[in-house]
Amino acid sequence: MNAYRSLQEETMLQHRQQRSKTIIDLHQIVKTYETPSGPFTALQDINLRIQAGAFVAVVGKSGSGKTTLLNLLAGIDRPTSGAVTVAGTQLHSLSESQLAEWRGRTIGLVFQFFQLLPTLTVAENVMLPMDFAEIIPAAERRSKALELLERVGIRDQAGKLPAALSGGEQQRAAIARALANDPPILMADEPTGNLDEATRMSVLELFAKLNADGRTVIVVTHERDISRYTDRQVTLVDGRVADDAQR
Amino acid sequence: MLKGDAAMTPLLFIKLLRDLRTIWDRIVLMILALSITLLMFSGVLYTWGITGREMPRAYLSTNPASATILLERRLNADEMAAIAAEVSKQPGIIDATSRTQFTFQVQQEGGGWGPNPLQIFVAAPDDPMRIESFTVEQGSWPPAPGEILIDRSSFDLLNLEVGEVVVVQAPNGATVPLRISGVVYIPSLAPSFQQQQGHGFISAASLPLLGEPVALDALKIQVADQPGLTVPSRNRAVITAAALDLAGWLQQTYGVTILEIQVPTPYAHPHQAQADSLLLGLLAFGLAGLLLSAILVATLLNGLFTQQIPQIGMMKAIGARSGRIMQLYLLMTLVIAVASTALAIVPGIFISRVFAPIILTLLGVDAESLTAPWWMYVVVVASGIGVPLLFSLASLVKTSRTTVREALDYRGVDRRGDISTRFDAGLGRLRGLDRTVLMAFRNIFRRRARLLLSVGLLASAGAVFIAGMSTQAGFQASLDRDKELRRWDVDVRLANIDEVSADAMTNLVADLPGVARVEAWSSVQTSVIPPGQQISVTRTYPDQGHGSIAVTVVPPDSSLVDPPPLLEGRWLISNETGAVVLTEGLPDIRSGDTIQLSLGGRPTNWLVVGIAESVGHGGGIFITQDGFEQATGVSQPNLLRIVTDDHDEETRTAVAQAAERTLSDAGIVVRSAASVSRSAAAGASHMLPLILVFLGLSITISVVGFAGLASTMSTNVLERTREFGVMSAIGAPASTVRRLVVLEGIFIAVVSCVIAAIPALLLTAIMNDYLPMPGLFQISIPAVVIWVVVVVLGAALATLAPASQASRLTVREALAYL
User: Fold this and answer.
1) Rounded to an integer, what distance in angstroms lies between the CA atom of residue B436 and that of residue B432?
2) Given an 8 Å threshold on Cβ–Cβ distance, is B320 in contact with A117?
3) Segment A180-194, tens digit of pLDDT
4) Which residues in chain B are closer than 8 Å to A128, comparing Cβ atoms?
5) Is residue B419 less than 8 Å (CB to CB) from chain A?
6) Tens digits of per-residue pLDDT, B63-87?
7) Which of B143, B266, B451, B559 makes the best surface tag, with the fewest CB within 10 Å?
8) Domain at A52-78+90-246, CATH homologous superfamily
9) Would you call A34 an interface residue with chain B, using a CB distance cutoff of 8 Å?
């Protein structure tokens, strides 16, 4: 356990040292979908660099391409043209299975509808990515999961099934799951979209805290108050970067 | 094997167990449906194995003769024994013995001759019974003079008991009592209830009591493929050649006249064709079960996997590789397959142990063992586990390869092409159509592969049900047509007579109460003699019924016969000679051909003027009275056909008995006098096993079809949980949701009925072609109506549970559903 902690501290230190480095690099990204009514370009000529340790909000109206952008960053989708490099890995060079493995080790994903597996308990949901990535020794996975749940404030819900939790608790569980393998990047798609006002704030504060610990956090959101927490806000309009404001 | 880093994790195993528990009702339904199909398949396969082994075994246990050489006149038993001994020494002949046989009327309780005759086989008392033997179950062989051993299947038919006396009418017309001294089992003969004829064995020493000399006329031989071999030949051509050579040698050496050589199909029970059809039906039964099982597995597992797509996407989003996902669902499939197989094994064996003896009893055969061949158990286990795995493989691979993006986009709806869009638009323009009905109809096309599978399953069941019922209806229609064409009620068969004129006989009977009309006919056994030969070779079995052909002599100006439907040529012209009309059962002969028929042991030449359908006129070949007289010199009839005033069974029986008494009193020997219903009963008995098989098949498939539909609809409902939540959120009451789901099930059922039409027609046509009994091609309208009602009601019932499940969903549950 101590060995793991020292490894974790060392990793965080490395993250801080790398804060000035580019962790995400999008170059000339175009994403076009074939639809029954013809091709639809969701993203056009996107060039974006994100430094390690940044807290970036991607904002824009519905259909502006926010989720598409996040999917490309997470290796969920592939660009029609252009190159995506995340944490030093050129994503186009990876197969679907390699992408899954890479994602498990590098990215923590949080979705609007939490997407917890309904037949696993909250703790088991958090342990599942550890099982997939196999970075953390099997014997330590449960305590690590409980530690993460403690960190997001739902330690006492660990043994329950997701359906028994409130929306805010489920989202916290989803965040704990995203942190399971201690990924350097946390990505969230409308993480507060399905939560009440009070819970929204607490979730955003949690993201800010995680960013303060050295993680790169990218949040796709409609949230107007997000700028209080982020240090960069990228605004998309019709698939193009309309504004890129740094604080 | 998969690499270590892609191995199944304990959490995935936990997820699997909880998933199975969460959807236990569908898993149970799936396991039950799979078990039923596997049960059906295994039961049929084992039955097929058992009957396929036991029937030939039982038949061959009697050491059937390869051929019977029938002499024109009977010879003294000692002389025949000496001839048989000499015949045994001929090259290629394994063994030989001599026999004869008679068919007698049996006196029924309270007097009068019963409708069912008794065929008695006669052997010399010292016959070693190495050929055409039987098993003595009670008593001993040979029975004492005046005693008879009765085939066990004949007791019920003739209402007999061991120790009682059976009174028969001897060839000379005398009434002879024979004491029943024992019971024999003769698996080489068709069972009595099917033939509507009893069987018994007496020693030649009893012949004098029957007014007959101790003489025999049938030489039974077993022929080997080559001299020196001791195994009877399976080659009919070899047997026929050997029998013809032997016949020539007999004629030359002993100066005997050969009436006929009978060479039945080697190694084949008289009901082998019936059994083959039955086995073919069983095989189709098994294959259909296997196919349905595969369809069902593909349908249900595809639904299950599809439902898991969002979870698969999420697992991939957090790092799961395709290999892990595949293992998870492979294991789920395996759990279902193994559970289904385990559940089906024992009941499958039980079914075969019940079903096989029923089939074998219907064929008159006892099973020595009811254990199926070992490899069939292997096939069942391999099929039970392998088929679900095999058929779900494509779906498994596809699902496990679902990308995160596809999973996140998944809404349970197929992408639609332009055709369906136009179709939908067309539907939308229909005025007055209820929106729920419209939605339900559109919804069934959303998962097209699943729709095809569900429809395929129900359509298969419908096709088999309709084909089975139609075949039965076709057979019944054939019987009805025969009845319509056969305008007489009673057949009275007479011994060959010269003393009394035909007119005198008909007058005697015509005066009886209840008789409307009498005609004098003749019916004699015949055979087609191949060109260039003098001795006819038939396929007749020892019972002289199976494989034999009869010539029916139609009297001039007969009002009792309507020409049967002609396939080619024409019907007979009154008083014409040298012309015959054949029925379709005689192959390779066309209208305009010349054929040689053996009549009374003499070859006669005939021109085929027509080929008719096989109908109930009592014979395969028709000739005129004048033609018969010219060819044989015989003018006396041997068959009286009586039309009764009333056509009920009581009147027919009373007239038959009165005719028999009157003719006997006039010194005319009556061989049998019976209502025509007897032949119909024999025909119906032949069809019974087949009808049982196809009804069983359709019922089983229907059950599986509905189970499949229920499970499919349950999957559909789960997949569209969010959609139902949305409907509820915008104000749809629970009843509307329920109606929507039930309507979807009903639409699937209706589509399946339409799809079932063509396979039902094809299957009915195939069954009509392959069944041993004639049937008219027709589609049973009641069967169609019954099926439509059953499938629509069944679909409504099968979808009630999923519909209720959908209607109970709360908006919150539905929207949070993963």
Assistant:
1) 12
2) no
3) 998 999 999 888 877
4) 9, 11-12, 315, 318, 320
5) no
6) 999 999 988 888 888 999 999 999 9
7) B559
8) P-loop containing nucleotide triphosphate hydrolases (3.40.50.300)
9) no
Mean pLDDT, to the nearest integer, of B155-164? 87
Q: Report d(CA A114, CA B78) in Å as an integer.
A: 101
Which of A77, A127, A129 is facing B405, going by the closest CB pair? A77
Residue B223 near residue B264, CB atoms below 8 Å: no
Q: What is the mean pLDDT of residues B708-732?
A: 71
Residues 6+ apart with CB under 8 A from A219: A55, A56, A57, A58, A187, A188, A191, A207, A226, A230
Query: How many residues are there in chain B?
Result: 818
Cα B604 to Cα B128: distance, rounded to the nearest angstrom = 38
Give which of B791, B809, B793, B789 is closest to B714, Cα–Cα. B809
Residue B435 burial (C-beta neighbours within 10 Å; 0-12, 13-18, 19+): exposed
Of B640, B635, B629, B626, the residue nearest B505 (C-alpha): B640
Q: What is the DSSP string of B463-500?
A: HHHHHHHHHHHHHHHHHHHHHHHB--SEEEEE---SSS
**Identity of the amino acid at B119:** Q
B589 and A CB contact within 8 Å: no
pTM value > 0.80:
no
Peptide bond into B802 cis (omega under 30): no
Instruction: Quote the CA–CA distance of B744 and B127 in Å, as a whole number.
Output: 73
- Which residues is A243 bridged to in the sheet? A235
Identity of residue B521: W
Enumerate the H helices of B363-373 as residue ranges: none
- The reply to whether A103 touches chain B by the CB within 8 Å rule is yes
Residue of A nearest to B20 (CA): A119
Backbone φ and ψ for B795, nearest 5 degrees, come out as -65, -40
Residues B404 and B56: their CA atoms lie apart, in Å, by 61
Q: CA B793, CA B245: separation in Å to the nearest integer? A: 68
> CA-CA distances (angstroms) from residue A99 to A77, A108, A174, B247?
10, 13, 20, 87
- In terms of DSSP bridges, do strands A185-189 and A107-110 run parallel, antiparallel, or are they unpaired? parallel
The one-character DSSP state at A138 is: G
Closest-CA residue in chain B for A165?
B816
What is the pairing mode between strands B147-151 and B175-185? parallel
Taking the C-alpha atoms of residue A134 and residue A141, their distance in angstroms, rounded to an integer, is: 10
Any B CB within 8 A of A95 CB: no
Question: Residue B239's closest CA among B210, B211, B268?
Answer: B268
According to the model, what pLDDT value does residue B5 have?
47
Highest mean pLDDT among B618-622, B701-705, B777-781: B777-781
Does the interface ipTM go beyond 0.85?
no
